[in-house]
Fold:
Amino acid sequence: MWGKTRASSPVIAPDGLVRDLYTRLFLHAGGATSLVLGVTSALDQEGKTTTALNLASVLASDRGVVDSTDGKGDVLVVDCHRSPITASHYLGVAPGPGLTDYLKRSRTLDDVICPTDRHYLKLMRAGDDPHNLSVLIRTEAMWNMIRTCRERFRLTILDLPSVLTTSDTQVLAGLVDRVVLVVRSGVTPARAITDALTRVDRSKFVGIVLNDHRRDLPAWLDSRL
Structure:
């Protein structure tokens, strides 16, 4: 079943909607104690990075999540972008080694996971060689990284590129447990939404975050979310 969570850029509000999305994610995960989530959109500039960061920030501050008995308290955001304006930029984290460096086996996982100014929220930057990301995510090292993150963190959020701009998103979406699609109200073309839904395994979509929602949202879209 499709759920809808309305968000207003740049912050998801209220926090209860974020927790509702989180609950839905774990219900769809069949009682799993940890989860790897991909956050994407059909096109660029729809608010997927701010949505991913707000989801991560709210849940990292939720004692019910970070005090889990299995020790997987922290929330990890993995920056999977080649663009300079990424999760690292929004969190005020300086550039440095990250995902690509780990996948090239030049750094350990602990080397590329850095703290943020939010308690229990960790970040893995895109890395020093983002232009080779497309090649590196198609290696066994990427699959191993996802497995390790699932073992170490309660929630791992992959901030993915948009679906229609690169095939990288289809590859990465195949590795995660669930996918959330961010749609910018009144901006994202209906055809783009439809195309995005056909390019990723439909069974992995757990819901849509409707970003920058306005009351004049077309009825056809509101009815299908």
